[in-house]
Specification:
heterodimer, A: five-stranded parallel β-sheet, 41% helix, B: alpha/beta, seven-stranded mixed β-sheet, five-stranded parallel β-sheet, 13 helices, globular
């Protein structure tokens, strides 16, 4: 249903619907009656979406990718809506990605960040969030150094909240764009009905302090991949109970030959990662992906990294520039995946206004 | 001592007095159905069917337990310095409504109670409070853990407990010296056990939930290391040690062994550590942030077992009020602490009481009422406690995805305490640790100071933060149905709470 709606919005050249979606587009009542992917009110953890929700985001992202290839990569789907970004931590790429996604959906954007804000005047997170809501934000995109801060915001405001990274907790849109990137890179290489069935993914690095790890492990596992962790014990949580893992290793080398995907986490010097290993040099010698290690990988294996890369640390420069290192695709895909997330949360029933009505109005106005 | 009359028809000249009528007394001497006649602050008669002296105020206690007033070893009354969150007066009102007749105010005020004049200030405020307010003094100046506070000048005022609560004395050498000095004064040192080098930066228990939630954790060992160290120092110095709010299975085991080895140690646990687990933090709601942190169920069971076998001597609230805005923050930015005074008795009854009134020896010759047996049939007994009750919670972020541990739901250990055990832990044993002496009798008998708690152990009520007497609202039990409600509280003969209403 939602995919076809996008097609209408676009006026001409509807993006190809996935075969699996075609049935859904026949009747909206049918979709809702069988309770198609549960759309959460907010996206606080990647698990909020469930497997079907992730699939829906990835399919939607495909539609938006088609839009993005047009000369004017813009649809009026969220015209009149306002996307507010509330960033308590520096993150140029994530913020720009969300703002670009909002603009391609014709939404207005509001931006709030530390340094330019009244936080410096002592305003609390609660008041700031409510202020943005009062200013007309239809969704709040929150980045915060404290785990759970977006959950708190979601409990205080009446609009959906998207977690754009909270402390060590989660970074769900990163995981979604990684799933999308992997799908594009691998095609439908999976075994069985799951998107990533039969895939072996190794997440390498400072898992303990990584919100990316907590999201990608769940997302990859939900889509059927066998996920393992590779890190020194000091960079693993003391308990891995509840993590959907196939295993973990303290050494990278034994893992190289079996992995279809190496997910290299950033060494976060700013989070004090330095004191968890004797030195960056020692870390690089054991966990850095250099050309020697690269050659031991499967020929068709791919490398993901959430960026920004510390060249010469997680990835040797020659490795980072390999075609199988998908870092640039990850960034590009971030926009269409975030378009899909914004569209899903703002366009779904139960979240504020009726989008279908809105967009038909938009179509009338534009004479589409 | 006032003259002890044995004549129930006491003359009016003895003052109007108070009669507590129709209740079942449970105290250190056992259980009996008796009325209590109180005059001039003391108990005059204890016997069934007392006649009411002319002019006396009658407090109905039918269906209720009448016990020595509760004593809290661990209250943060926040004054001076934190008056936005609580004052001695508001905290004492909360205490009275919770059935307490005496509380020990912790010294982590601003400025801290680390000298005699600061202690005098709080004691003066306490003189006008609804309950008896004692203070604990700090062990070190400014609670900074660097040099000893003037304990002797505080001890000479009658202060018998010293603690840097909120933090533990990190330096083992200094703690040893403090213990030696305390032994010379005959006072007790109370420790908040937490090794800072292991706990630093943590905001919740380190384990499965901290790993999933991405919140920096505090391992149980941070507490246990200091418990072990201080038990050894107590053995070395011969000092009397009280361990505040134990929260881990390892701590309980260490104390159990120390007691059997003859080390002079007492220990307390809080009501919240007896029923809430670290899973609560999955809501990211700082109402569940507390120090020491909430622990997994296996620790809860060990704490309950410690109560059952006498390893743990007291239940103490760690009543820690925080202004609403302080808790309206991300989890790691919010301060630690929960309210406790108004819910402690009910939480313990709901979670741990075996539901029986009776089976103890009768003293007054009156037939012991097995209220439990009769109430069971009316459907108000604990069996009606449904798992769905947490749905009534009025707060909780993320759409209440995570619900509270079902209070009273039997943990695998199935530990249940009788009323005598519960009151021992909440009333006369903490009174003994605080050295209240005759000011707080363990047996309600003629001549004893009339500090008394009257509660209906069966009444169920839902905790409403807006209706608490505390100036703060940070209870983790908002919206939770509890069993057991305080009806009257008397402090030195004065009914400060009547029918659940504070009298001033």
């Amino acid at each position: 249903m939602r995919v076809s709606l996008v097609a209408q919005d676009c006026g001409s050249d509807p993006p190809k619907s996935e075969p699996v979606r075609a049935g859904d587009s026949q009747s909206s009542s049918k979709v809702s009656s069988k309770g198609s992917p549960r759309v959460p009110r907010s996206l606080l953890e990647v698990g909020d979406l469930g497997r079907e929700g992730i699939e829906e985001v990835l399919d939607l992202a495909d539609s938006f990718a088609e839009v993005s290839r047009r000369p004017i990569p813009k649809v009026p789907a969220l015209r009149g809506r306002t996307v507010a970004t509330l960033f308590y931590e520096d993150s140029t790429r994530t913020r720009l990605s969300f703002e670009a996604a909002a603009k391609r959906l014709s939404a207005d954007t509001m931006s709030f960040s530390l340094g330019t804000s009244s936080v410096n005047k002592g305003e609390s997170l609660l008041d700031t969030a409510r202020t943005l809501e009062s200013l007309g934000a239809d969704v709040l995109v929150v980045r915060h150094p404290s785990a759970g801060a977006p959950s708190r915001v979601a409990s205080w405001v009446g609009v959906p909240v998207i977690n754009a990274g909270d402390g060590w907790h989660e970074h769900p849109t990163q995981a979604l764009l990684d799933c999308y990137t992997l799908t594009k890179a691998l095609g439908r290489r999976s075994v069985g009905k799951d998107r990533f069935g039969g895939l072996s993914v190794a997440v390498v690095g400072d898992v303990l302090h990584s919100r990316v790890a907590r999201s990608v492990v769940k997302a990859f596992a939900m889509l059927g991949a066998a996920v393992s962790l590779v890190a020194p014990p000091t960079m693993l949580p003391s308990s891995l109970e509840g993590w959907p893992l196939a295993g973990f290793s303290y050494d990278l080398d034994p893992v190289l030959a079996g992995a279809d995907v190496l997910y290299m986490l950033r060494v976060q010097a700013e989070r004090g990662a330095g004191s968890f290993v004797p030195s960056v040099r020692e870390y690089v010698s054991r966990y850095g992906l250099n050309m020697d290690r690269f050659r031991k990988m499967k020929p068709d294996a791919v490398i993901l990294h959430p960026g920004p890369v510390n060249r010469g640390v997680e990835l040797a420069p020659e490795v980072a520039d390999q075609p199988s290192a998908l870092i640039a695709s990850q960034v590009a895909n971030g926009i269409v995946v975030r378009m899909a997330v914004l569209y899903l949360l703002l366009g779904s029933a139960g979240n504020q206004r009726d989008l279908e009505q809105d967009s038909s109005k938009v179509m009338d106005e534009t004479g589409a | 001592m006032p003259e002890l009359s044995t004549d129930p028809k006491a003359p009016c000249s003895a003052g109007p007095g108070v009669v507590i009528k129709g209740g079942t007394i449970v105290d250190a001497a056992g259980q009996r159905a008796c009325d209590i006649v109180i005059s001039r602050g003391r108990i005059e008669h204890v016997q069934p069917g007392c006649e009411v002296p002319c002019g006396a105020k009658v407090l109905d206690a039918s269906g209720c337990i009448v016990a020595p007033g509760l004593v809290d070893l661990h209250s943060h009354l926040r004054e001076p310095g934190g008056e936005l969150a609580e004052t001695v007066e508001s905290g004492s009102r909360a205490a009275a409504l919770g059935g307490y007749s005496a509380v020990v105010a912790m010294p982590n005020t601003d400025p801290p109670i680390d000298n005699a004049s600061a202690a005098h200030h709080v004691l003066d405020l306490g003189a006008h409070a609804l309950v008896e307010v004692m203070v604990a003094g700090a062990i070190t100046v400014d609670r900074a853990g660097e040099r000893l506070a003037p304990m002797a000048e505080m001890a000479s005022m009658g202060i018998s407990l010293f603690t840097d609560d909120g933090t533990g004395v990190q330096d083992g050498g200094l703690m040893r010296r403090a213990m030696e000095y305390a032994r010379g004064l005959g006072v007790t040192l109370a420790q908040h056990c937490e090794d800072r080098s292991l706990a630093s930066g943590g905001h919740m228990h380190e384990g499965r939930w901290s790993s999933i939630l991405g919140i920096p954790g505090i391992p149980a060992e941070a507490e246990e290391l200091m418990v072990a160290r201080d038990l050894m120092l107590a053995r070395l110095t011969g000092a009397r040690l009280h361990l505040l709010h134990l929260s881990t299975a390892g701590s309980v085991e260490l104390v159990r062994k120390a007691k059997s080895a003859g080390i002079k140690v007492t220990a307390e646990v809080t009501p919240h550590h007896l029923c809430l687990s670290d899973e609560e933090v999955a809501s990211y709601d700082p109402l569940f942030k507390v120090s020491p942190p909430l622990r997994p169920v296996e620790h809860i069971i060990a704490l309950q077992a410690g109560l059952e076998d006498g390893t743990v001597d007291a239940v103490a609230t760690d009543h820690a009020p925080h202004a609403t805005q302080a808790k309206e923050a991300p989890f790691d930015q919010a301060p630690s602490g929960m309210l406790g005074l108004e819910t402690a008795l009910a939480v313990v009854l709901t979670e741990l009481w075996d539901g029986r009134v009776g089976s103890s020896p009768q003293i007054c010759g009156e037939k012991t009422t097995d209220i439990g047996a009769t109430r069971q049939t009316t459907g108000t007994a604990r069996s009606s406690h449904s798992p769905g009750m947490a749905g009534s919670r009025s707060i909780g972020p993320a759409g209440g995805r995570h619900r509270l541990v079902d209070l009273g739901a039997c943990l695998p250990s199935g530990i249940r305490l009788n009323l005598m055990q519960i009151l021992t832990l909440l009333s006369w044993q903490p009174a003994s640790i605080a050295r209240l002496g005759s000011a707080h009798p363990s047996v309600l008998r003629p001549g004893a100071v009339a500090s008394i708690c009257v509660f209906d152990p069966f009444t169920r009520w839902v905790v409403d933060p807006d209706r608490l007497a505390s100036k703060s609202k940070n209870t983790p039990f908002a919206g939770v149905e509890l069993q057991g409600q305080v009806r009257h509280t008397l402090v030195g003969g004065e009914p400060v709470v009547i029918e659940g209403e504070a009298q001033r």
